[in-house]
Design brief:
With 493 residues, the chain is α+β, with helices and mostly antiparallel strands. Helices cover 52% and strands 16% of the residues. A hairpin with a 5-residue loop joins strand 3 (122-128) and strand 4 (134-143).
Length: 493
């Protein structure tokens, strides 16, 4: 019935409160009981001290004189309503009481026996009589100058009022304690329900999300930490839903990207298998097979790199390298493609650049990816410019790839480096190339920044730190003269 948070609250909070209240009630009961009994004892002790005036200096000469004096004292006792006085002779018999009744033998009374053996002649008893009444008694023994026992005077008071007082206070404390417990239980129950109910709702919703129902939402009932947690789970579900859609789109795109070259390869292979084609057809078919195989290989390598990136197994073979060699090779590899597509690939080749520290294969992969993207999104007749220069202010090397293609919408620009994201669905591509390129540049302690305007073009700036500061230009060359001009693109055709 009680589990989880409710059980812990019952044990930790309610249990502690209950224990404290019980302890307070018990302490109060014991304190009242002790104070009430102490009051009765003090009263009896005060009354017994009157014997000092009744029997001055304890010089009574005989038992008879004692009994006469004690009887007169008992008869005129002014506090008969509060207590009873019993006069006991030297033989231990009760010979007179303040109530007028004489009753039996006092030798079996504990307080009387204690008084006989005590050096100060005093004894006390607290307990029940044979009648069942709870009483307290104090006995004073009177001796003469010869230390002979002349008799004793016993003061007896009922403890009924003291017990009643203790019971009433204990009852009142118990009632107050029960009220406090009830209030704590009600408020605690409301508080626990205000936590348990949303938590159970969050648990149910989380199970639905775990099963793939990303449309599941939690109603926010409180504007507090629980409410913030509800918002976080709802945001998580929305993000997972968006990621799931991106993943599904990615799988669909990759499937299409894989199927297209495979279809072309299979088609031309079947064509050549059906009969011996002429030389022109054979050359064309082999060209398609080689081209589509390269495209397929590139896509598979990109997927493998992305898998390594996701699992943290993407490693770099870092060494001192000439960045211009890799950019030159990347431009050379894509120049023929640009010409075949009727696009202009311009490269401002500097004479030299400082040495950087990096993985030349991975950096060439980044340059190929960025220039390839520029070619994809630039229409026929468009231009792509590649520029490399040294930034003396930041002591870095910058590689700028600019095009006058279709550009990127402002709402898509912050997401283009996210995995699976693809701003333009009409262009072939997996949507993971920039994510891999950005991670590679980060592993080189550099940055990959993208600026773009729709129907104007896109500029990608790759910044890499210089490895050796000794490779800077001569100190007499001014920084302003060393900075190259921006790449000027022709108007869009």
């Amino acid at each position: 019935m009680f589990r989880g948070i409710t059980k812990r609250w019952l044990i930790n909070t309610f249990g502690v409160v209950l224990a404290i209240i019980i302890l307070l009630v018990v302490c109060l009961s014991v304190t009242v009981h002790s104070l009430s009994y102490s009051t009765v004892e003090n009263t009896l002790t005060t009354r017994s001290q009157e014997l000092n005036a009744v029997f001055p200096d304890y010089i009574s000469a005989s038992t008879t004189d004692f009994v006469d004096a004690a009887t007169a004292y008992a008869s005129s006792f002014a506090y008969k309503d509060e207590m009873e006085i019993q006069v006991i002779n030297s033989s231990g018999r009760i010979v007179q009481t303040s109530t007028g009744f004489t009753d039996g033998d006092a030798s079996n009374m504990p307080d009387y026996r204690e008084a006989l053996s005590a050096a100060d002649g005093k004894g006390k008893f607290s307990g029940k009589l044979s009648s069942g009444e709870n009483v307290m008694a104090i006995t004073r023994v009177i001796k003469n100058d010869g230390a002979d026992v002349l008799g004793a005077v016993r003061y007896v008071s009922s403890l009924r009022n003291a017990d009643s007082r203790t019971f009433i206070y204990t009852l009142l404390a118990s009632i107050v304690g029960l009220i406090i417990i009830a209030v704590v239980a009600l408020s605690g129950n409301y508080f626990i329900r205000s936590i348990v109910k949303p938590v159970r709702a969050m648990s149910d919703t989380s199970k639905r999300i775990a099963q793939g129902d990303f449309s599941a939402k939690i109603d926010k009932m409180y504007d507090d930490e629980i409410g913030d947690l509800c918002d976080s789970i709802n945001d998580m579900a929305a993000e997972l839903d968006a990621s799931e859609k991106l993943k599904n789109d990615f799988i669909s795109r990759v499937s299409h990207e894989l199927r297209t070259p495979l279809t072309a390869i299979k088609g031309w292979a079947e064509t050549m298998q059906s009969g011996v084609p002429d030389r022109i057809t054979l050359a064309k078919g082999m060209s398609v097979i080689v081209k589509e195989s390269s495209r397929l290989t590139s896509l598979v390598e990109e997927l493998l790199d992305f898998s390594k990136l996701q699992s943290g197994r993407l490693t770099m073979q870092m060494e001192r390298m000439d960045i211009l060699a890799e950019i030159d090779e990347a431009v050379y590899m894509l120049r023929e493609r640009a010409l075949s597509e009727g696009k202009h690939l311009l490269y401002d080749d500097p004479e030299e650049m400082p040495i950087i520290y990096g993985d030349h294969n991975r950096l060439k992969q980044v340059f190929l990816n960025v220039i390839d993207n520029a070619l994809k999104y630039t229409p026929e007749g468009g231009m792509i410019g590649v520029q490399v220069y040294r930034d003396y202010r930041e002591n870095t090397v910058k590689v700028v790839v600019a095009d006058n293609g279709c550009g990127i919408n402002p709402e898509d620009l912050p997401k283009v480096k996210d995995k699976f994201y693809k701003a333009n669905q009409k262009i072939n591509g997996s949507g993971i190339g920039l994510a891999v390129a950005d991670e590679i540049i980060k592993m080189h302690k550099g940055t990959l920044e993208i600026e773009s305007s729709p129907e104007v073009g896109t500029t990608v700036t790759i910044t890499l730190p210089i490895y050796n500061e000794a490779a800077i230009l001569d100190s007499d060359e001014s920084i302003e003269e060393a900075l190259p001009s921006e790449v000027e693109l022709p108007p869009k055709t």
